[in-house]
UniProtKB/TrEMBL annotation:
InterPro entries: NAD(P)-bd_dom_sf, Sc_DH/Rdtase_CS, SDR_fam. Transmembrane segments: none annotated. This is NAD(P)-dependent dehydrogenase, short-chain alcohol dehydrogenase family. NCBIfam families: PRK12745.1. Belongs to the short-chain dehydrogenases/reductases (SDR) family. One of its GO terms (molecular function) is oxidoreductase activity, acting on the CH-OH group of donors, NAD or NADP as acceptor. Keywords: Oxidoreductase. The keyword Oxidoreductase applies.
Amino acid sequence: MSENKLAIVTGASRGIGNAIATRLATEGYAIVAVGTSAPESIAPNFAGIEQAGNPWVYVQADVSTPAGREKIVSTAMARFGRIDVLVNNAGVAPKVRMDLLETSEESLDRLLDINLKSTFFLSQSVARIMESAKAEDPQRTPKIINISSVSAYTSSTMRGEYCISKAAISMVTLLFADRLAAAGINVYEIRPGIIATDMTSVVKDKYDAMIANGLTPIKRWGQPEDVAKAVWAACSGLLDFCTGEVINVDGGFHIRRL
């Protein structure tokens, strides 16, 4: 068994997931970094994890499938013998933004499979392992952290399927927090706002203007590292009397103001 605590981070090849995996690696965690890209095509993205000097492995897997999820969990256990943190970060936006009245069943299914089902069933698999490990060693402090979005509560009728998938993750968080609290497993939801990633690069000009005009009290784009800091706060032990908690990383977007 690894002496380092082990964190699984899905969607870790770039953007928010990569920043999270890098931050946890620098804090001493062994890392299972999950992505769908061929490893040779994204190797430079993991320089920060390499520099941290702790054990890590990249798993190429599709989190939306049972086989992909089994590959992730079995690799973690075979290589490290433990799972201390699961960060459900993998997520996609619609391939094409369409009005709510035109949204296709195919697009809805795709987002629910990747964004929602992966979070639910990977949490389910990992929670069983965490429960057993916690029973054997009560000193362990396992955590499950779900990355949702301000879209969990904000209407965007040109990408309704995305909003629905993220709103569902909020309920997944509450359900698992409730179910696992007695076992000593804490569950958190982190809601990023406007974060500078590949996903948001296509609407940069739009959000530049909206931020300048007061969309968020803190007038700047969020960075992936801002989300990574929130994940570390949850993992650090400083929030151990909290579960089912929502951490907004959104520059104050959630503040309702006149």
